[in-house]
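If you are new to this repository, start here. Below is one unmodified record pulled from the training split, so you can see the exact layout before writing a loader.
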Amino acid sequence: MNSRLNVLKTCIIVLALTWAIYLFIVQIIDVFNLSYRRQIRYNPSKEIIIPMRGNIYDRNGEMLASTIKYYQIDIDKKAVHNYCQKNNKSLNEVYDFIATTISNNSNHSKNSILNKLNKKADNIMLSNSIKESELMNISKEFTAANLNAITPSFNSMKRVYAKGNLGARLLGMVKDIKDDSNAKNRSVYRMEGFCGIESSFNQYLNGEYGWKETLLDANNSIISYPNLQEKQPKNSNSVYLTLDSEIQQIVEDNLWSGIKKYKAQNAMAVVMNPQTGEILAMAGLSRKDGSTNESLIRSSSNLAVSHRFEPGSTIKPFVSLLALDKKLFKSNDYIDCSIYNLGNRIIRDSHEMKRLTFEDVIVKSSNVGIAKVAEKIGPVDLYNHYITLGFGNKTGANIYGETAGNLKKYTSWSGFTLHSLSFGQEITVNTLQLTNAFCTLANGGRVLRPYILKEVRDSNNKIVTKTDVKTIRTISKPENIKTVQGYLKNVVQRGTGTPTHLDYITIAGKTGTAEKIEAGSTSYGKYTYTSVFTGYFPTEDPQYVLTVVFDEPDYAYHYATMSAVPTFKNITEQIIALPTCKVIPNLKKEQQIMVKMPDIMGLNKKEAQKTLTKNNIKFQCIDDKSNDIVINQFPKPGVAFNPVNECIVVFGNNEDINNTIHDNSRMPNLVGMSIRKAISIAKNLKIELEITGSGVIVAQSIQTGEKLSYLQKCRVRAE
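And here is the target side for that same chain:
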């Protein structure tokens, strides 16, 4: 009896100890994490509400980038069974309704949904790729049927670029960040700008997260409960760029055609408004882009601001401008442009030029001539001038990946640097820098801050911030800027840029063909070049500055006149043809305002200038020496012409006036004139000159006073 009692006591003690140990393990040690489940059950947790990333638009409101939210739909099969019993419907009938509703409002097939519904699990994920608009329609139909069996939850976002690869490197891309480390608050999803515009203006495109308190049941499903708090997310802003998507498309199409035709490695172009600094188009394409997927292209560098190259002869107009400012040269000063032997270095042109005027050093693009100009300027002034124009520094446009370019301080220059810098060697720029520098020439000397962000708008379409035009500094004198503008206009009319010429609009610009330094070397490659053309139009009131760059075109097309120039022309023609482009209508309107040319024959320079200025007539002087008088003028007295064009005033002495002829229909006497003067007169009389020799004209094939026909050719010989 006692033994049985002892066994019973022992069993009770063991059970009590076991129970105590179990309770200690469960409640104190909590190996099953029951305290967390209890906390979930009775304490609300916060669910993060993800804001929608802002849209990106062009200047005309065309969508460039937007965001689509994707949701996950889970179904509670117990709720479906309860719905069937309550509404006296079969399970297959309800399953058919669910599958039909989802398939009709999404890209999921009805059979795929039915297959998931027929699985044995109580909670089933039907889809994790339902768009927000699709979810609204699905929820509406389920609510109408009083079927509360689905649970939607945010899953992900996708950035959509409405125009495909257009501006891919410029717009950039986003990266998705999903943090699943905090199980209590579920996953926290973020979409951050990774590169390009998406990164540069990420602070505007990203909204602020919201949250709401939720209670979860034992199955970790959300249950309804009153008085729970929440904070609505702050919607992100939308970014409006200065880009014109139509111009961007024109630029990219032509660059891609150029890459194929000229077999270039890369092609870059920038279009800007020189009056404001707005970037209207910016493109950088690589030959490899044709076989590269979109994501990789978007994550690649924006070549228009990252690719550095030596600008070559496109730098020469800025050197000439400084020489004019310092009063070192006049337009008609002659410079010996024969081969220049510096001892350890020989400077020569692509074809030998002997004596050129200061203007023709730019028009004909003489390395020898501009090197001699730079010698007179000196290293300190030339360096400071380049810095003033923005070379060697970033532009301040806040564009992702922009490089500053390279410009050594003058204290580090070698004995060759001064000459090299004058024709675009030993300096590197990017396409945006070069374009912005030419904007300074086009707008009359204002160095602008280029910008691509037009404005930022909130979800109510109210302007949050906008970019204003900013002039960083003003350089040079108006008359010197105007003189250089004339040089650039003549580059297109009779210089290295003649293939750019259009009959219905005037263009000014400069070519550049620069050798490339071989990778891993300090020497220039034998067959590698950068071809550049930068120009603006219309010259009367510049509205567009365009730079076209081809990196390493095939040697057969390495001259800018054979690659960059025709591409520039094609882009220009297509921009002008756009319905939104007002260049031609504005020019026609200006052409309706005509003025009559006054008679200034026999007046001295001061009197002629006063008369022309009084009539708001722009003019160009030829051979204007002191004490000379006007011996000829174009147009002739009383002729009506457009005041946006320059008249030509020819100066000489009293003897020369007898040699001029006032009848434009007859051949003037060109003998004894300089070639420059003869060309100017012939141009206004619509005569085509065939010139042999150099210096002063000694003979002409058409006799003085002979009746002229339109575009008649006249051979002249100079000595």
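Two things worth knowing about this chain: The longest helix spans residues 2-29. Residues 181-186, 658-662 have pLDDT under 50 and may be disordered.
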